[in-house]
Structure formats: structure tokens, C-alpha cells
Amino acid sequence: MVAAASLVVAAGAVAGVLAAFDDKPASDEAAPPEVSASPRLAPLPAVPSPSAPATAGSASPSPSARRSQSPAPSRTDTKRERTTTVNGRLYRHPDSQVLDWVRSHSGDPRHAVIASRIAEQPAAVWFADYAPDTVTARVAAVTSGGAALGRVPVVVPYAIPGRDCGGHSQGGAPDLDAYDAWIDRFAAGLGSGEVIVVLEPDSVAQTECLSAGDRADRFASLARAGRVLKSANPRARVYFDAGHSGWNAPGKQAAWLRQAGAASPESSDGIFSNVSNFHTTADEVAYDRRVLDALGGPAGLGAVIDTSRNGNGAPADGEWCDPSGRRLGRTPTLSTGESRIDAYLWVKLPGESDGCKGRPGTFTASYAYDLASS
Q: Which DSSP category does 20 fall into?
């Protein structure tokens, strides 16, 4: 089953095009914040992040050098075990669409349920727009906010060229050289504290639309991105795209991940799965372990799972666009009690629509309430 992680809609960029989806009263939706919104599956989520001037990044490599930067873990790589773990509690960024809605709808009868079950939970912050001049400061606003509270932020760089194979979530950097430079600037905002990086949803699982050469170039850029992020902040934990348990076979996904640098400790701390999708936590745990077994690499590589909307599992008919009957999954935590599973995260913010119950990427209270009260 091929389904992209989520539909990304850059805030403010699609109001006219998506007006046909807006069949809810204005008071039911929160205006997208300046951060990016979260993406959706088979669509992808658009995500929020603060704006501010950015610092310049380092130069990116020439296209001719790109493929030589790709992965292949060495024998010493495979024996290196991860020596650090992320401890403590996850960070709830104060700028999000659900918090905007909660602050402005105190009298709404759905307020208490949405506030307590969704708005109080930590969620990932997406950077889905290609804005190199501001990305450093926007990332730094999130990571410094987490560090000030002693909490661990989750950030999602989502600007790979050709994302979503040119589908609903198309966009990102104009080419891989521009992407490499954008990642340099993204990394400059990571600070020095604990941070989890969910690197480019769909970027590995959804690559069959690319030629063999373009796929190799993308994987080289992803491997480079992992190295740059971890070099900028050695306490950053970088996870690579494993799709989800209803998509590619574990061996196939692991082979692609290996080419993208996910088995190398210089680039990677492991894999992520189920972003913006609905597969059960048990299915994802089993799938991720199979992918990790096939991937090889350091024994300490782990996985993080998006549990934001998987409480009832995936619909039998494969529907991905705001399917009915779903509910919230496990609350975000860094203590899963499962071997090789480093965290349950809310990467897709519950209530941000895929485009069927509200405008794509916007928080829709009726959808959020359905998820939280099921």
C-alpha cells in the first residue's frame, strides 16, 4: 500500500486553491501560525515555526561530489553502540494551531476535551516551507524554548526537492544543492541541548517515482543532512524515514535506508514510522524492529513512532484523508518500555486536517473533538 506520510500545505499559500474544502464555519478552524503546519499521509502535514532573521549557512557540495558522500557503513560503524539516550520530557511549543483555537474559544463546549487531551500534549514542530533566510532563527526559537524548560523538542525538516513525488505535498527546495544549504542553516539553529529530528517524512519510503540516479543523489543528500545535523549538535537525535507497516517490505525499506546513511552513526540514530498515518503501535513496533534488523548498523539504533491518530488503527479500506472512526493514540513519551523503541511522538498534530474535514493543514475543531472523544 503506497501512502505518503502527509500532505504539507505551507501556511497562507493555498487559501484560494483549497477554498472548496472549507465547508466548516470560520470559528471551527484556527488560522495557520507562522511556523509550518503539520503534513498528512498519502498527503502530508503542514507545520508551524517562528519567523526571525536567519544566519548564513555553509556552502553545499557540488553535484559531481554528491554521490560520493553517500553512506555504506564500515565494519567499525556496525560495532559502535549508541552511548547516549534522550532523557526527560518532551517539549510543547507555545505556538500551534490547537493552542490558538483553545485560547480564542474558551466558551466552546468542545474546549475542555480538546484542551486537555490534545493541546496539553507535546507535538513536533514542522519546517515545511523553503525559507533559508529565516529557518535558522525559527529552529533556534523552538530549540532554545525547549532548553529553557529542560524539555526535549521535536523538529521536522521537510524541504527535500521532489517531495511527495510532485503530488499534494509538492514543494521544498528548488534542487539538492539548495537543499544542502538549507540544511546547513537548519542545523545552525539546533543549539546544544537534547533535540529529536524527524528527517524528511516520505523521503525514503516514497522514492520509486525517482530514477536510479536521482534516488542516489537524494540519498546522498539525506546522508549528508544527518551528518551536518549531528555535527552541529552532538546531542541531536536524527531519525530517518521508514514509511509505515502497511507500505514497503522491511528488507526493501532497509536497503534504501542503508543507502541514505541511516545505518551510519555519523548520520543516524535510527528510523521513524507512521508519520501522519494510522497503523497500530503494536504493528509499528514489530515492523520497525524488522527494518532495524535488516538495516544493520550500531546495535543502539532505535525507532520513534507517530502515535497521534492511531488509537483505532488504520481503516480497513485504506482511506488516508481524515478517515472517520479514528482516535488519539498513545500520549507522547520518551519512556516506551519497548526495546529499540525510543519514543512515541505526535508528529502529526491531531486535529490538523488532511483536507476532507477541513482545509488541508488547518486545525479543525470538529475533527479534533472526534479524535479526542472517541
A: G
Q: Indicate which residue of 28, 180, 202, 241 is catalytic.
A: 202
Question: Is the CB of residue 298 less than 8 Å from the CB of residue 26?
Answer: no
Scan for cell 511556523, then name that residue: 35
170-221 tens-digit pLDDT: 789 999 999 999 999 999 999 999 999 999 999 999 999 999 999 999 999 9
Is residue 362's pLDDT more than 50?
A: yes
342 is catalytic: no
Q: Supply φ then ψ for residue 75, to 5 degrees.
A: -60, -35
Widest distance between CA atoms in the chain: 61
- What's residue 29's pLDDT? 64
DSSP for 303-332, written as a single string: EEEE-TT-TT---TT---SS-TT----SPP
354 is catalytic: yes
Over residues 240-283, the pLDDT tens digits come to: 999 999 999 999 999 999 999 999 999 999 999 999 999 999 99
Taking the alpha carbons at both ends of the chain, their separation in whole angstroms is 26
Q: Select which of 164, 184, 306, 370 is catalytic.
A: 164
- The yes-or-no answer on residue 283 being catalytic is no
- Report, in this order, helix, strand and coil percent for the chain, each rounded to 5: 30, 10, 55
Highest mean pLDDT among 8-17, 308-317, 356-365: 308-317
Within 8 A by CB and 6+ apart from 273, the residues are 242, 243, 244, 245, 284, 287, 288, 291, 303, 304, 305, 306
